[in-house]
């Protein structure tokens, strides 16, 4: 599964479809992850292997759910999962990288209700969750949180127990844990079960108020209740939400999509000043306070477009492109997160010639995975150049696996059909479906449909 360049949802890289895919029982050795922070050759290959080691060594397991197409994962790999702090974590816990496109990861993502990439989940030797961190985080915040989880192993049940004994801080901790688990219904239900006096005291705390509003927004979003999403998003946006602002604005943009243009503009116009201030002071600055610059830039451009301010839309994209180029210099391999951000900004700005050049540079800079050859091949194919696209798609196929392999094959089949090589397309699809199809029914169905179209 390959994320679209500009996908942003509630929290970076949230893909609910992963949780809906059927997962079959299997015996599967996880393919070696290709992210830059890959563990050494002795690292466990699957979560099951890590849990077995945990039982023997009496250490917790830290599961790093990530993917080769996940730009937020690039940030973590380059800027956070490095240095003495990360080495210390690997001494405290058994770290296993779980590739979201593998059957093993999808089984555990479904079990743990993981819908954000990256996600970092700490388990005890029995597979019980001790805590989690969802989405990319600045270095200081990540280590403060992961060290606390590893030191104390506070589970959701522990927070709930302390909350029932009157701890307001643990009310907030529990609600935030439900939010990290993407479970608004359960979180709100648990809060409603607390004694009335505890609820009243807790509601006086800003952390609790914000967490309740965010859980209400999550519940409305999961129910596809657009009016409720709009109401909840406005309440959340009125608070000090820091780096979450672009994601909540995305909720508001999506939920208001079917409204009349004038009504939609009236909803979004009051948000522009706070968003501009956020971008100007926390994102497009030499030392950004927020890890996810891309979502802020693209959301800002989306709001400007909706409000009919094409000059502002162009300006924020041009500024982001210039600052990113300045950061990278001529070496796209120096920071993959920023390099991929540059690609996404060029896509959004419609600067095709520059985009094509950057995509070719990315293929050269990251030759050991399929992503950039796939993206460039697909762009050529979508542009009506199947003969030029096919070599890039074939290159991507050599590096792809699992769900990725099916996605790449779909585009190879499209290219082969456009070149009137139908027999070759059928043979390719048949081989790939036999090897990968049973574990990925949705992608397999799309490939079969392409063959029949």
TrEMBL record:
InterPro entries linked: Thioredoxin-like_sf, Thioredoxin_domain
SUPFAM superfamilies cross-referenced by the UniProt entry: Thioredoxin-like
Signal peptide range: 1-38
Pfam families: Thioredoxin_7 (PF13899)
Keywords: Signal
Domain Thioredoxin: 32-151
Name the UniProt record assigns to this protein: Thioredoxin family protein
Source organism of the structure: Rhodanobacter hydrolyticus
